């Protein structure tokens, strides 16, 4: 007790100020969560800015043109497409019927003459339809033009008898005077400077709805029948 009283008295003599030291010190809290959130927010903002700054590349293929009007139509285009699609059926039937007919002839079920007739019919029909399909490849059924008469859309038949559309600039079409004459002048070829595609336009048996625009697109000597 006397020792405690001595300690208190010495503390009073030193001015009454007591310093208590501790080995444990508090470290300042680092706002790591706020810093991570801020970095994530800034990165997302920069991504949005870069995405908005990149312009979209659009291809001028005529898909955005809504006002097309017809300047040419081939009335028999639907019949031609149907006949072109029939070429696969005789080929399959001939490939199956000819071996069967020959086998039946060797089995003395019917004569070899009957097998020859079956083969001749199948081969003739297949060759006829294949030749017709080859001659009518890229046959033009419709020709459309826009309001400014600067774009032209050509609708034609491919080798399978399906419709295909191509859009070209009028200036890209090869002039009629630079093209050779077609077989028997039943049609005239339509070419362009972009690729080597050749389309067949039967102007003699087609319907021209706008003669002036047709002359501007393909040439004046085309309309003469």
Describe this structure in words.
By secondary structure, the chain is α+β, with helices and mostly antiparallel strands. Among the domains are: 68-74 and 140-218; 78-136. It contains 6 helices and 7 strands. The protein has helices spanning 2-13, 32-53, 77-85, 88-106, 112-135, 211-218; strands at residues 69-73, 140-145, 151-157, 163-169, 188-191, 198-201, 207-208. The strands form 2 sheets. It has a 5-stranded antiparallel sheet. The protein has a two-stranded antiparallel sheet with strand order 5-6. A hairpin with a 5-residue loop joins strand 3 (151-157) and strand 4. Residues 1-60 have low confidence and may be disordered. It is found in: Mitochondrion inner membrane.
Extract low-pLDDT stretches. Answer: 1-60
How many separate helices?
A: 6
Helix content: 40-55%
Structural class: alpha+beta
Dominant shape: elongated
Q: Summarize the helix and strand pattern as letters.
A: HHEHHHEEEEEEH
Summarize this, please?
With 225 residues, the protein is α+β, with helices and mostly antiparallel strands. The chain has helices at residues 2-13, 32-53, 77-85, 88-106, 112-135, 211-218; strands spanning 69-73, 140-145, 151-157, 163-169, 188-191, 198-201, 207-208. Helix 4 (88-106) runs antiparallel to helix 5.
